[in-house]
Amino acid sequence: MPKPRLLVHVCCAPDALYVFGVLGETYDVAGFFSNSNIQPREEYDLRLEEARKVARTAGVPLLEDDYDPDGWTRLTLKFKDEPEKGRRCDVCYAARLRRTAERTARDGFDAFATVMSLSPWKKAAVMNRIGRQFAARAGVAFLEADFKKKDGFKKSVDLSRAHGLYRQDYCGCLYSRDAVRARARTSRTSP
Ligand code: SF4
What angle do CA 165, 112, 140 make, to 5 degrees? Predict the structure, then answer.
């Protein structure tokens, strides 16, 4: 009996490599890189190239969405001053999961999932709720998960180090990059 076809939203290479391994046991997996949140363009290109690399390593096809950072910025502008894990992030998860649900339906996959819950800085319960909503609208299934459980995050860090993958130091948007830089400046100037 063939495995169900699963489209897995990929936000970055380190998370994808671990999750591809976990899901590949049960599903016929394809990746979907849909991340208009990532800025600037050079950072987007770098993360996409790394995602292509891990897809080749895992033997998984990688579909690539259009890059629309201006559209993403318009969507989230109202929440630009929110901290990470705040409402801006909920809108950001939704933007990417909506695209993934629509692509799942369009390309005839049985279900979709996202690797994002692997991160300790991401709210799996919120992502799962949003994923269910878009799945219902698109008429497909959503695989709920929290990949950080069972030491998932630590395993992904070990795996990405073993493969020499690029590990970004901010989540993806310019707001998150600026917050990381501001924290670094404060810690350098603290006594
Ligand atoms: S911090 Fe990360 S999840 Fe939140 S809005 Fe920025 S890119 Fe999206």
Answer: 170
- Tens digits of residue pLDDT in 79-135: 999 988 899 999 999 999 999 999 999 999 999 999 999 999 899 999 999 999 999
All domains of the chain, ordered by start, with CATH?
A: 5-189 (3.40.50.620)
User: Which pLDDT tens digit goes with each residue over 26-39?
Assistant: 999 999 999 999 99
Going by alpha carbons, the residue nearest to atom 6 of ligand 1 is 173
Ligand 1, residue 92: give the atom nearest the CA.
Answer: 8
With a Cβ cut-off of 6 Å, ligand 1 is lined by 37, 84, 88-89, 92, 171-173, 175-176
- Ligand 1, atom 2, residue with closest C-alpha: 171
What is the residue type of 191? Answer: P
Give the Å distance between the CA of 174 and the centre of ligand 1: 9
Task: Say how many Å lie between the CA of residue 69 and the centre of ligand 1.
Answer: 12
| Per-residue exposure over 98-112, b if at least 16 CB sit within 10 Å of its own CB, e if not | bbbbbbbbeeebebb
Residue 59 CB contacts under 8 Å (≥ 6 apart), including other chains: none
How far is the C-alpha of 46 from the C-alpha of 95, rounded, in Å? 21
